Amino acid sequence: MGIRILRADVVRRLLPMDECIALMERTMIGVSAGRAVVPLRSIMVMPGDRGMLGNMPGYLAEPECFGVKLVSLIPRNQPPLHSSHLGLVLLFEPQHGRPVALLDGAQITAIRTAAASGLATNWLARSDAGDLALLGAGEQAQSHLQAMSCVRALRRVRVWARDPDKARKFALAEGVRHGMEIEVSDTVEAAVRGADIVCTLTKAREPILKGAWLAPGAHVNVVGSSVATAAEVDTEAVVRSRLFVDRRDSTVHEGGEYLRALTEGAISASHILGEIGEVAAGTVPGRRAPSDLTMYKSLGIAAQDLAAGYYVFERAVAAGLGQVIDW
């Protein structure tokens, strides 16, 4: 019996963004159809606001496996030396419960999170959308730019970050990587003005994006906040939107933007129109009109990590990649 160890470079090599977007579609359809067990994550907060440890267990029926992602969140970390999210994905086979793979959790998280946003954008954004605003200039901005490029023909890209120098470095490096000009915006309002795809990818605990700034017909991926006490967009943005989520149960417990609007009495529980897996399966309508403002609240769930991890694991076995250690 052995465990296959798969490092970050192997994960990147075996999990291309376009393939991961297709994988997330299959996975989220399965989640919404009840073919997964996804308990709410548990979070341990370290003293002194130093960071958190997340424990995300889950089970998938297709492909059948179960496992857990353990991820640390240290906000002061500075990529590329250290990601703010570091951790491991541990996979078990279901017949005997043997651990079979241990994968780099930071790369799984970076790729599958953006791929899920790519899935949502593909189903909810207008077909002609191509004016992208990225709020944040870190690792998720890099992966989201790649994901958005996979699902829409981008004609304009703008980036904003609290640190203007970081935004400029991002624009230069990613502009070269993607062969495009990336504009740096001085304010969030300037970044999103007229944009038809917006991705919020920050560590903000209070809203940085106002609904009044969003153009009719825009699609917004709200990604950065993953706890009930943090929100990147204001209540007006939530109220104006047709709101879709990765998973209802996660959102009603952890979705800060939704919970803030609900507590203020601005929306009811019925404001969540559906899960993205239901939209992809055709059981819930997504965008109804070109002028709709659509929003996808991404919290990230263990089913996404397990599906991505198992996909990489199977490909690594076939290619003879990774280090196998006796167990």
Tally the structural domains: 2
Contiguous low-pLDDT stretches (5 residues minimum) are none
Report the CATH superfamily of the largest domain. NAD(P)-binding Rossmann-like Domain
**Order of H and E elements:** EHHEEEEEEHEHEHEHEEHEHHEHEHE
Count every helix, treating DSSP H or I runs of 4 or more residues as helices: 11
Strand content: 25-35%
Biggest β-sheet strands, sense, barrel: 8 strands, mixed
Strand tally is: 16
Q: How would the global form be characterised? A: globular
Mean pLDDT rating: 96
List the quaternary state of the chains. Answer: single chain
CATH domain class of the largest domain: Alpha Beta
CATH architecture of the largest domain: 3-Layer(aba) Sandwich
Radius of gyration: 19 Å
What does this protein look like?
It is a single chain. The chain is α/β, with parallel strands linked by helices. The protein folds into 2 domains: 2-109 and 303-326, 2-Layer Sandwich (ornithine cyclodeaminase, domain 1), CATH 3.30.1780; 126-300, NAD(P)-binding Rossmann-like Domain (Rossmann fold, 3-Layer(aba) Sandwich), CATH 3.40.50. It contains 11 helices and 16 strands. It has helices at 8-14, 17-32, 105-124, 139-151, 164-178, 188-192, 235-240, 248-254, 256-263, 276-281, 302-319; strands at residues 2-6, 36-37, 42-45, 52-61, 64-73, 85-92, 99-104, 131-135, 156-160, 182-184, 197-200, 219-222, 242-245, 272-275, 294-297, 323-326. Strands 1, 2, 3, 4, 5, 6, 7 and 16 form an 8-stranded mixed β-sheet that branches. It has an 8-stranded parallel β-sheet with strand order 10-9-8-11-12-15-13-14.
